[in-house]
Amino acid sequence: MLNIAEDIEVLARFGRALADPIRCRLLLEIREAPAHPSDLADKLGISRTRLSNHLACLRDCGLVVAVPEGRRTRYELADARLGHALDDLRSAVVTVAADRTCAEADEKGCC
């Protein structure tokens, strides 16, 4: 049986995670291949502290998991279906709104 309230909460949580460009980049990087924080920080050109905060957010949202590897930790998508969802979402958004901006973000809080 569908629970609309739970579905809405999960979608809103996914939306909050995607609302930040750094988290979007992280998800797309991790979607390509699991990675260690130091490698992700270098690829994204951000500090490890800042990266750690974004990874914590993605973990809390249930989108990525931390996998211990000896002294290091590797991050990967929590479920392979998230990679497919990101691909589908990216394709749909690019197709529908590649030339759009959210000019009303300050007025209506739409974006």
Can you offer a commentary on this structure?
Residues 4-100 form the HTH arsR-type domain. It comes from Streptomyces erythrochromogenes. This is Metalloregulator ArsR/SmtB family transcription factor. InterPro entries: ArsR-like_HTH, HTH_ArsR_DNA-bd_dom, HTH_Metal-responsive_Reg, WH-like_DNA-bd_sf, WH_DNA-bd_sf. The protein is mostly helical and 111 residues long. The chain has a domain at 8-84: Winged helix-like DNA-binding domain superfamily/Winged helix DNA-binding domain (Arc Repressor Mutant, subunit A, Orthogonal Bundle), CATH 1.10.10.10. Helices cover 63% and strands 11% of the residues. It has helices at 4-18, 21-32, 37-44, 48-60, 80-97, 105-108; strands at residues 64-69, 72-77. Strands 1-2 form a two-stranded antiparallel ribbon. The longest helix has 18 residues, at 80-97. The chain starts with a helix and ends with a helix. Residues 105-111 have low confidence and may be disordered.
- Specify the overall morphology: globular
CATH architecture of the domain at 8-84: Orthogonal Bundle
Helix proportion range = 55-70%
**Count of helical segments?**
6
DSSP strand count: 2
The top-level CATH class of the domain at 8-84 is: Mainly Alpha
Q: What's the alpha carbon Rg, rounded to whole Å?
A: 15 Å
Euclidean distance between termini CA atoms:
31 Å
Side-by-side strand order of the widest sheet:
1-2
Domain HTH arsR-type: 4-100
Protein name: Metalloregulator ArsR/SmtB family transcription factor
InterPro entries: ArsR-like_HTH, HTH_ArsR_DNA-bd_dom, HTH_Metal-responsive_Reg, WH-like_DNA-bd_sf, WH_DNA-bd_sf
Organism: Streptomyces erythrochromogenes
